[in-house]
């Protein structure tokens, strides 16, 4: 059973540092929007301010094929860091403190560490070098890492101990049993469509090489859009980001999120199961931590997720 969701507000991205903090910059932008956009949007923005900054979410996923040694294994999911003028070194270090505080067995980060410029790499490196987990920190690339220079981001990340899984997998071992983590490069993730249709797809073949039971694997894939195809490959759990949960959410109707990102796909935030195939695969889409475009979030707080894996049947 999933534990209740917790809010981390006073300790994260809210303390005053030397220079303007993230919350200070957000309030400045919010004030401008309120002044320009009228009463309706003002009420929406005020609601976001009251909800705090980073939401810590606890989720439990049932993987019947999970090796018994990994029962209760925990993972901290932190996506879309987006080092930028709106996510600077002090802000990033507070995020790292929160991630480390969850004390998960492993940390997974599905892409977008920077936003667009190589100058954003040093703050990311300085902060993320403090990440700690018993079984390590594993990542895949996101589209913004390509905008900046994916090889630069990869080299910098691996220099501080983060393992970038670029169309490859790695086995976590416990009591002689293995749990596979798979990482697919953002530019190559859509090749899975060729693979499931029986056509050559070298990147996907490389990513899944040596995995006999994908039902017991964890797939890091920045964009969630290809989930239905990966479900046909029977991956146990796919972890994605990219959407920022909509970032600016105008409302929710019947479970549908009203945001610009929902135009591209209905995979916007939270847990999903396949609709186009009979598969036990599951998808979780994180709202992420940073922002892109407008430096604000409306009805969509940033998120860090602690995931617990179990072989037992749990409620969704």
Explained architecture:
The chain is α/β, with parallel strands linked by helices and 316 residues long. Helices cover 28% and strands 23% of the residues. It is built from nine helices and 15 strands. The strands form three sheets. Strands 1-2-15-3-4-5-6 form a seven-stranded mixed sheet, with helices on one face. Helix 2 packs parallel to helix 3 and helix 3 runs parallel beside helix 5. The longest helix has 30 residues. It is globular and about 45 Å long. 46% of the residues are buried. The N terminus is likely disordered.
Write the layout of secondary structure elements.
Layout: E1 6-8, H1 22-51, E2 54-62, E3 74-77, H2 89-101, E4 106-110, H3 121-128, E5 137-140, H4 143-148, H5 150-159, E6 163-164, E7 168-174, E8 177-184, H6 192-196, H7 202-207, E9 217-221, H8 227-232, E10 237-240, E11 251-253, E12 256-258, H9 261-264, E13 270-272, E14 282-285, E15 303-310
Helix pairs in contact: 2-3, 3-5
Q: What is the typical, i.e. mean, pLDDT? A: 86
Tally of structural domains: 1
Overall body shape: globular
CATH secondary-structure class: Alpha Beta
What's the multimeric state? single chain
The chain-level structural class is alpha/beta
CATH architectural arrangement: 4-Layer Sandwich
Please trace the helix and strand order, writing H or E for each element: EHEEHEHEHHEEEHHEHEEEHEEE
Stated plainly, the CATH topology is called Purple Acid Phosphatase, chain A, domain 2
Number of helices: 9
